[in-house]
Design goal:
The chain has 301 residues and is mainly beta. It has no helices and 27 strands. The mean pLDDT is 97. Bound molecules: magnesium ion. Magnesium ion (MG) is lined by residues 33, 75, 119-120, 177-178, 231-232.
């Protein structure tokens, strides 16, 4: 099949399209992350962490600054009411942008101590907010403010946005990063990106069963990334997992088998399904954002 692909399993051909281009829709950034598609506004928001900005890409191709002085915003998502939820390294917090534009801090400490640097975030259909808290945003002054971690773990947290209560969902990561639920929300996938600073840590996505009380159990390796580290990723409507990697986007079936790759000329940090018909992958990759049409769409619980 023509296109920027590496096909490993023939099933991948049913998920991609021939004769489509990988388009660079924004460039000139430092490190792009946190893509989230707002269907109601037909726009993509994404972070440029070191530049302290959140940008907005519109379907007419224009790009403008959605938020200046973003406090080193990283991961973004939206809640069930369509409000923007953002991880901010600079304030070591998770925030919600209200419909009137006001920014509310939802979480900035656990056990009486500051969080490390919330990285990526997802909202479950019950409204609970799940986020990862590795130390990347406090390791240097490039993506935040250099500080000593005060948390004893790099947690995956579950947050009740009504009460502000935080629970440690799991403590077993060196550096937890991207996260996503399966379509039925019975599984939570979490990326382990600790190999960025420690070769002995495997570059894997782990998966957990989510019980009726939102507790995680039966943690196991879902798959291994063979190029670079897994940062952000998304699950599609067929149960496939589309993950960031050094050489592009890797697509895995629900069993963790690698089906194929979309090759991207810059290291990929994250991706989101979106576009007017929901069938584009919008890919944040180092200095640029790329888009490509695929024959799939986001999982929707
Ligand atoms: Mg990340």
């Amino acid at each position: 099949m023509n296109g920027p692909y590496e096909i490993i399993d023939r099933r991948f051909c049913d998920l991609i399209l021939a004769n489509v281009a990988l388009r660079r829709i924004s460039t000139g950034h430092l490190w792009t992350e946190g893509p989230v598609w707002f269907a109601a506004h037909q726009c993509l928001l994404f972070s440029d962490i070191p530049n302290q900005k959140i940008y907005r890409w519109m379907c007419d191709g224009s790009v403008n600054v959605f938020r200046d002085n973003s406090n080193f915003a990283n991961g973004n998502t939206q809640d069930r009411q369509g409000r923007l939820i953002t991880c901010q390294h600079g304030t070591r917090s998770v925030t919600r942008t209200e419909h009137n534009g006001k920014i509310t801090t939802l979480a900035d400490q656990f056990d009486g101590k500051p969080l490390n640097a919330p990285n990526d975030v997802v909202v479950k259909s019950d409204g609970s907010i799940w986020f990862t808290d590795p130390t990347y945003g406090i390791l240097s002054d490039y993506e935040g403010h250099k500080s000593t971690p005060e948390q004893s773990h790099r947690n995956v947290f579950r947050l009740d946005p009504e009460t502000g209560e935080l629970w440690q969902a799991t403590t077993e990561f060196t550096q937890p990063n991207g996260l996503a639920f399966s379509q039925d929300e019975k599984r939570l996938y979490v990326a382990e990106s600790g190999s960025s600073h420690d070769d002995s840590v495997p570059s894997v996505i782990r998966v957990y069963d989510v019980d009726a009380n939102n507790m995680l159990e039966n943690g196991r390796v879902f798959t291994t990334i063979d190029k670079g580290i897994p940062d952000g990723f998304r699950v599609d409507c067929h149960g496939n997992v589309w993950s960031s990697a050094a050489d592009g986007v890797h697509c895995f079936d629900a069993g963790g088998e690698l089906l194929g790759k979309i090759l991207v000329p810059e290291t990929v940090s994250n991706l989101s399904f979106g576009g007017p018909r929901g069938n584009e992958l919008l890919i944040t990759a180092t200095t640029s954002v790329y888009a490509i049409h695929v024959n799939s769409a986001a999982a929707t619980p």
